[in-house]
Each structure stands twice: as structure tokens, then as C-alpha cells.
Specification:
It contains 1 helix and 33 strands. It has 484 residues and is mainly β. Among the domains are: 61 residues, no CATH class; 173 residues, lipopolysaccharide transport protein A fold (Sandwich). It is globular.
């Protein structure tokens, strides 16, 4: 067929100058300005071969392939089998906001194994900074990039050596820091903190932490996380300070997903679908999250508490704009109060676009807490916000008022910066996060319940970040490499 288009399989289409279909071998060969696509993914090449019996997908000419903001390109790509094995020649790609370049990439088990590569988050044709590494492994489904045996360069100058650096991935998979954290906290005082990450496997990693605070003294700690294939995460943290002693927590969390989330498409859709991004849960319906949390002598909202344990069940996408939480736990505060706490929370935030740049958002939330001591605490709030987009700014102005206020919590940490009055709220944010100011002003008490200032200033290849709580008088100051 000349100048043809075909539906290669449900949801997948191919357009090309010429398409040849071999019925006996169940294969398609397309050549000349080939475009192939299916929902949320598309690519172009000069020659494409799909052989279903052999489960082979081959781009035999210069190609590009894109899923959302992520893309890869090269001189050729071969994929075989549902396991997703193959190779890419003269690779260049953008994955999770990072740009990677190498002469050859091996694809194994839906991960990319890259030798003698360069890595950067600078999008200029000649990057101002980059890492040159002997080994880079990309785990697209986890959104994580593991860089090993790397040298950090600014322009043409080598600056320092990194044995391992982990970029992105689940929160439990931590990484080393380029520069320590500097922060001032009303509880801990001035703090300097540095993390050193380690990597065992994509689902098994953590970090060692060294710190010094003016009130807690010198400290060290270990945080380790593990993820099972059924999306259950386990995170363990241990910290010890010369003044305040030992702190720690154990956090087990997971998700229940509907069966249709499993990729059931025919080859090559599952392989190509996992090559750059994970299957999107939010587009496949609802999911439920559960969590079991133990804490020992942790500081929460300026109070030292212990939790043995708290069990949570929540969902943020059961219905559009609706989130809810069920929780039950045994709490102790400062060693003086110990009792059970049971929580039920629900919130809905529907939106209605008024113009291309103006949106009206409504808000209705309900919070109920019951305590083993007999205390009860119920709160229901309603509110509305106007959200205006103005180029690189996003402005929001709203009003919220309580429909029900009844009872109270016996715990001090529960009451920190909680709304108890009608209030005006506002926010001014830069779309790229360079600065933001947001707050809530209580009309009954004529005071700010919360007021936050956030600044992030680019300094050539580095960024200075400042976060200040003007009510709690808490300052966080840090330096980091731009976009890392």
C-alpha cells in the first residue's frame, strides 16, 4: 500500500508512505515518513517492522519516540518480547526532566542500561553542567535514574567525584546531597544536615544522615526503604542525638489497585508503554491507600509524641475532586497524655472554568476526631476561591468559613495552626516555583493563622532556596544544583 494508514492493533495506528502487510508471517513493514501512535504516545521513523509471532518491534532508521514530556531518539531501536529486551543506537533522551546521551543503550526488563554516558538537567544545547558516568541505569516505571562512578563537570572543569547518585524515584529511595541543608527551627534550633545515599536495588535503598543542632546536639541516623512488587513500601528510620536521645519510626504503606490497571495490551504496547513512563493510575480509575505508622519520640508541630501504631486508609481519586481518610491510633504526647485517637476526614474541591485563565473552585471539608479519653472534635468548613492565571503568575483569592465547630482535641500538636474562624486566604505563586507567598487571615481574631514566604533564586548553575513561616518563625535555607 502506498501513502497508507492502518490500525495495527486496537488503539495503535501507523501512517507511512508505504505499508506492506504479510498475512502468512503476521508482520508489518512500513517505510518512508513513518508515524506510529496510540493513546498518549507517538513516534516517527523512516522504517518500522512489527513481527507479532516473534514479538519483535524494530525501528530501523533514525527515530524519535515521545510519551508526555519524556522522549528518546536514536539511529535505531530493537525490542523483543514482553520482557522488553533490546538496544538503541546513538541514544539521546529526556527522562524525568533529565537529559542523557550515549552511543549505545541496552534494554533489559523495561530498564535502560547505559555505558559511558552524560547526564544533565540543563536543557541548553551545550549544558553548563553535567555528570559523566561509566554506568547509568534508568528505571522508567519507578521514575528513577541510578548514576554510578560519575564525575561532576561545570563547563569543561571537573569539580568532584560521585560513586553513586540517585535521581528521582519513590520517596523511600533516597540519594546523596550535593550540599548540606541549613535551617533554623524553634524546636531543634539552628541545624546543619547532610545525607549520604546508598543503593542496593531499585526497590531497596536508603541514606545515612549526619547532623548538628544547637539544641539536640550532634546526631546520626539511618533511613532505609524497601518496596515489594505489590506496591507495598516499608520505611525504617533511626536517629540518635547526644542531647535528646533516640528517635525513630517504622512506616508501612501500600495501595490497592483495580485489576484493570495491569497492562493487558498486546505486544508491543506494554513494552513501549513501560519504556518511558509508568501506567498512569489516575487515568485508570480509583485506588485505595493504606498505611501503618509507628513513631518513637518524634517532634510533630513542636511537640514530642509517640504513636503505637496509627492505621490509615485513604483515597484521593475514588470520585473526581473527592478525597477521604480513616485513621485510628494510640498516641502519647510529651509523656503526660496517652490515649487513642480515631479520625474521619473528607474533602471535595470541584472546579468550574469561567474563562481561559479564570477558574472558580469550591471547597467543602469535614473533620471528626474521637479520643479514648471521651473527648470529641468536629469541624465542617466551606469555602470558595478564584484562581487567575497571569502569564508566569498564578493568583488565588478566597474565603472560608466554619459551618460546624464542636469540641476540641486534648493533644497540643493537634491544635497547631488549625482553622477556628472565618478567614480570607490568598496565594501568589510563580509557575516555575521561583517565589510564592500564601496565607490565611482569621477575621474573628484579626491575625494570620498561617503565612509563608518561599523564594528560590537561580545563581548561575546553583539555586538558593528560602522557606520562611512568618507565624511559626521557622526558617529553612538551602543550596542545590539547578533542577536537581
Amino acid at each position: 500500500m502506498l501513502c497508507a494508514s492502518v490500525s495495527a492493533q486496537p488503539g495503535m495506528s501507523i501512517e507511512a508512505d508505504q505499508i506492506d502487510f504479510n498475512a502468512s508471517s503476521s508482520s508489518i513493514l512500513a517505510s518512508g515518513n513513518v508515524s506510529f501512535s496510540w493513546p498518549q504516545a507517538q513516534g516517527q521513523t523512516g522504517r518500522l517492522l512489527i513481527d507479532w509471532p516473534q514479538e519483535r518491534f524494530s525501528l530501523q532508521d533514525q527515530f524519535s519516540y515521545r510519551q508526555g514530556e519524556n522522549f528518546i531518539s536514536g539511529t535505531q531501536m530493537d525490542l523483543a518480547g514482553h520482557a522488553g529486551t533490546g538496544d538503541i543506537g546513538n541514544f539521546y533522551g529526556r527522562i524525568n526532566k533529565a537529559f542523557i546521551r550515549s552511543k549505545r543503550v541496552e534494554i533489559q526488563d523495561n530498564s535502560l542500561h547505559i555505558k559511558d554516558a552524560s547526564f544533565t538537567t540543563c536543557d541548553l544545547p551545550s549544558p553548563h553542567y553535567q555528570l559523566s558516568a561509566s554506568d547509568i541505569t534508568v528505571y522508567p516505571v519507578l521514575g528513577m535514574i541510578v548514576i554510578q562512578n560519575a564525575v561532576f563537570w561545570i563547563q569543561d572543569w571537573p569539580v568532584f567525584y560521585l560513586p553513586t547518585y540517585i535521581y528521582g524515584g519513590p520517596a523511600l529511595l533516597a540519594s546523596s546531597q550535593f550540599i548540606p541543608d541549613f535551617l533554623d527551627d524553634p524546636v531543634q534550633g539552628f541545624t546543619v544536615r547532610q545525607r549520604f545515599g546508598y543503593f542496593i536495588s531499585p526497590r531497596n535503598a536508603g541514606h545515612v544522615e549526619l547532623s548538628w543542632t544547637t539544641r539536640l546536639g550532634y546526631g546520626y541516623g539511618l533511613t532505609h526503604g524497601f518496596r515489594w512488587r505489590n506496591l507495598t513500601d516499608v520505611e525504617f528510620e533511626y536517629k540518635s542525638f547526644t542531647v535528646s536521645g533516640v528517635q525513630g519510626h517504622l512506616d508501612i504503606r501500600g495501595k490497592w489497585l483495580p485489576r484493570e490497571l495491569a497492562p493487558t495490551e498486546n505486544f508491543p504496547a506494554p513494552v513501549l508503554g513501560n519504556l518511558l513512563t509508568a501506567f498512569s493510575e489516575s487515568q485508570k480509575g480509583y485506588h485505595l491507600q493504606w498505611q501503618a505508622l509507628w513513631r518513637s519520640r518524634e517532634i510533630v508541630n513542636n511537640q514530642r509524641i509517640s504513636v503505637w501504631p496509627e492505621i490509615r486508609l485513604s483515597s484521593s481519586s475514588l470520585l473526581e475532586g473527592l478525597s477521604w481518610l480513616l485513621a485510628a491510633g494510640n498516641f502519647s504526647e510529651e509523656g503526660t497524655l496517652a490515649t487513642e485517637r480515631y479520625r474521619v476526614e473528607a474533602e471535595t474541591t470541584p472546579q468550574w472554568p469561567l474563562t481561559d485563565t479564570l477558574t472558580l473552585q469550591a471547597n467543602l471539608s469535614a473533620h471528626s476526631s474521637y479520643y479514648g479519653s471521651g473527648a470529641q472534635w468536629q469541624r465542617v468548613f466551606a469555602g470558595s476561591d478564584l484562581i487567575q492565571g497571569m502569564g508566569f503568575l498564578r493568583l488565588s483569592l478566597g474565603y472560608a468559613w466554619p459551618l460546624l465547630l464542636q469540641g476540641g482535641s486534648p493533644f497540643l500538636f493537634d491544635n497547631y495552626q488549625v482553622q477556628t474562624s472565618p478567614e480570607y486566604r490568598f496565594s501568589i505563586k510563580h509557575v516555575r516555583g521561583y517565589y510564592a507567598l500564601w496565607g490565611a487571615y482569621e477575621t474573628n481574631f484579626q491575625r494570620f493563622r498561617e503565612l509563608y514566604l518561599q523564594l528560590e533564586q537561580p545563581l548561575h548553575e546553583w539555586r538558593l532556596s528560602l522557606n520562611y513561616d512568618l507565624v511559626g518563625k521557622t526558617l529553612n535555607l538551602g543550596f542545590r544544583l539547578a533542577d536537581l
